[in-house]
């Protein structure tokens, strides 16, 4: 009998590992301690760990994708305080991501009931504790794979006879609601468009893959559900409608030339009622990468920077991170 989860490890499989990450940070960060010049500090509690933590399997390749916010409590003692009064505070890490370099982590350190006499302990936290925390951050990817791999990858000796592939289904998560849409005003595609002053946008992005793989990633419903992290409506037929990110992005496929070009209408839900832009994606295959040229016309004036940010973050960075087309691991 075939293993129903993923025959031959072909399908894109995703596991939400946020709960696991919360336990990991609690186990590996709480209890860390440091001492400098007679002053001591240690992490006492994990207060918050929120964001996205996912383990993906793509054609047998295991990929970790995460972006979380962390808040911890610490306690210590300043050696110069005669009464031995304990000093407490918090450490806020606004971003721990799979592509963050060790030098780029930001630590916001605060002291409760601050006073000049207690300032010395900040150096213990900053120069003693935070380097220890970074070491644990750098182990996260390997630990995630080691402890969760069996849920997304099947060893060959455990495979059975193949069965027909099944469409992937994914629970809708926060990515569907946090996609940048500017104002909160909603509009439907059927509403007649009003006259809108528009501008255009052109971007060129490189992906460490082939034109065929990138084309499939942008047009295949199973792959799109991975990089958008939620349900989508998508078809490879010209004239078909599509919806991403819970309907915050929608449009129609106008022209599809496999591995060469995609032309589509495209709109954000918050744009003026019934107004669509036009997006042309052209693929240029190089010797070791593919260059994607995106030209978009009909963007409402004032929306160009938000639109650029959405393409960069929710499309290009998400695709690179989900499939290893240029992400750092």
Automatic annotation (TrEMBL):
<dbReference type="InterPro" id="IPR023393">
    <property type="entry name" value="START-like_dom_sf"/>
</dbReference>
<dbReference type="GO" id="GO:0051087">
    <property type="term" value="F:protein-folding chaperone binding"/>
</dbReference>
<dbReference type="InterPro" id="IPR036338">
    <property type="entry name" value="Aha1"/>
</dbReference>
<comment type="similarity">
    <text>Belongs to the AHA1 family.</text>
</comment>
<dbReference type="GO" id="GO:0005829">
    <property type="term" value="C:cytosol"/>
</dbReference>
<dbReference type="Pfam" id="PF09229">
    <property type="entry name" value="Aha1_N"/>
</dbReference>
<dbReference type="InterPro" id="IPR013538">
    <property type="entry name" value="ASHA1/2-like_C"/>
</dbReference>
<dbReference type="Pfam" id="PF08327">
    <property type="entry name" value="AHSA1"/>
</dbReference>
<dbReference type="InterPro" id="IPR015310">
    <property type="entry name" value="AHSA1-like_N"/>
</dbReference>
<dbReference type="GO" id="GO:0001671">
    <property type="term" value="F:ATPase activator activity"/>
</dbReference>
<dbReference type="GO" id="GO:0006457">
    <property type="term" value="P:protein folding"/>
</dbReference>
<feature type="region of interest" description="Disordered">
    <location>
        <begin position="156"/>
        <end position="197"/>
    </location>
</feature>
<feature type="domain" description="Activator of Hsp90 ATPase AHSA1-like N-terminal">
    <location>
        <begin position="14"/>
        <end position="151"/>
    </location>
</feature>
<protein>
    <recommendedName>
        <fullName>Activator of Hsp90 ATPase AHSA1-like N-terminal domain-containing protein</fullName>
    </recommendedName>
</protein>
<feature type="compositionally biased region" description="Low complexity">
    <location>
        <begin position="174"/>
        <end position="197"/>
    </location>
</feature>
